[in-house]
Design a protein that fits this description.
About 35% of the residues lie in helices and about 15% in strands. By secondary structure, the protein is an alpha+beta fold. It binds MYO-inositol-(1,3,4,5,6)-pentakisphosphate and adenosine-5'-triphosphate. Pfam families: Ins_P5_2-kin (PF06090).
């Protein structure tokens, strides 16, 4: 927990210090982290009083970049995002600046959290960038609110990879998940990753979409309190409608699908792919979606996209190419992988039965 002060215009986070003789206004509490960012909850400090101008910051999240990614102009990137999405379709965010000493303090704390075993093992030795002092302020989509439920998911590849073999029986996401599940069966979600097929989610077919929604409920551990006004089945029906027909969820997924195709029609294997476009397509294939709905089925479902950070092109191209080669050569696309007898998997891919022999 790091104590800090807020400053209004331009938005900035300062250490408690000489400039601020009063007690700290807020504390930054470690929330979560991914491969590229660490997120902090902004909470009021126990002793300080909050300037009324800063009250809107409380309970928001501060998202800070790690130092393990190459720098791409955040400004131009945000212009691309804004050009392609309605503001209601993405998690609202505001750029803020942090004083370097706040970053130093947070990095020291990360080391401590690491020693205390609180950080995820795969994120150890990763720290916040001291070169880029920008952070994003955003609403906490996972904040508990009475009667409101949130599911976080990754829509992933909403179309088959352009360079997958024509006789593929798994889409890119299911092929990669099958490979991950065999190689690291102890991974999250009871040893499986991506238990749903993105092609089924975007199929506009209720019979295919409902099982995906049920899987999302299971993996997100959504449990209904006794006072939920709707039964789980009614909510699952509501979400199925949201992702079929004229539902807004399907509209957003289709838009994501179109953009994935537009920015990467040929795949990473070509001789000279347009790296900037490819990187944007890969961002759109790895972004998150927060799905919010209420236990009272009368209120509308809401979906917002997050984690639309630019993928670094340097270094990543060779990773994407190698992975595509492995998925193809090791038989993960075609379902002819050598591991199949060792670790038999339930096949969820839409292509599995459709292209079965
Ligand atoms: O390769 P993929 O499709 O498995 O996606 C990776 C993600 O894996 P997962 O969603 O679990 O399958 C992976 O997610 P996790 O770290 O496994 O949660 C990352 O998002 C990775 O991106 P980056 O290296 O952090 O920029 C992602 O890598 P990119 O392919 O987007 O570069
Ligand atoms: N607005 C938000 N509200 C609540 N929780 C959030 C929000 N944004 C992100 N998170 C949580 O923090 C985690 C890490 O955030 P994020 O996905 O932005 O990090 P990342 O480093 O970009 O991830 P990746 O490993 O996919 O690159 C997310 O998986 C999510 O659980």
């Amino acid at each position: 927990m790091i104590e800090a002060q807020l400053d209004g215009d331009p938005p900035a986070i300062h250490p408690r210090g000489r400039k601020y003789q009063q007690q700290s206004e807020i504390v930054l509490e470690y929330h979560k982290e991914g491969g590229a960012n660490v997120l902090y909850r902004i909470q009021p400090s126990a002793q300080g009083t909050i300037d009324p101008a800063h009250r809107t910051w409380i309970n928001q999240l501060l998202r800070l970049r790690k130092d393990n990614i190459s720098s791409i102009s955040v400004d131009s990137y945000h212009r691309t995002i804004k050009k392609n999405f309605e503001s209601d379709d993405i998690v609202r965010s505001e750029l803020v600046i942090c004083h370097p000493s706040i970053i130093d303090a947070l990095n020291l704390e990360l080391k401590q959290l690491e020693d205390d075993g609180i950080r995820p093992t795969k994120r150890l030795n990763q720290f916040i960038s001291v070169k880029d002092l920008h952070g994003m302020l955003m609403p906490n989509m996972l904040a508990p609110a009475e009667g409101v439920y949130t599911i976080e998911m990754k829509p992933k590849w909403l179309l088959q990879s352009p360079t997958a073999p024509p006789n593929a029986r798994r889409c890119r996401t299911c092929a990669k998940a099958a490979r991950d599940n065999c190689k690291a069966p102890q991974r999250q979600w009871g040893g499986r990753v991506h238990l749903y097929c993105p092609l089924a989610l975007v199929s506009d077919d209720e019979e295919l979409v409902t099982p995906v929604i049920r899987t999302l409920f299971k993996t997100a551990h959504v449990s209904f309190e006794n006072n939920a006004l709707c039964s789980q089945d009614r909510i699952i029906n509501l979400l199925t409608s949201y992702f079929t027909g004229s539902g807004d969820g399907l509209r957003l997924l289709k838009q994501l699908q179109d953009l994935q195709a537009k920015f990467d029609p040929d795949g990473a294997m070509g001789i000279a792919p347009d790296l900037e476009k490819l990187a944007f397509a890969m961002t759109l294939r790895d972004c998150s979606m927060f799905l919010r709905f209420s236990g009272d089925c009368d209120r509308p479902v809401e979906a917002r996209l997050a984690d639309l950070d630019p993928k670094p092109t340097e270094g990543k191209l060779s990773y994407w190419r190698k992975l595509e080669e492995q998925l193809t050569d090791e038989g993960w696309y075609t379902g002819t992988e050598k591991f199949q007898e060792i670790q038999k998997q339930d096949e969820v891919c839409l292509l599995w039965t459709r292209n079965g022999t």
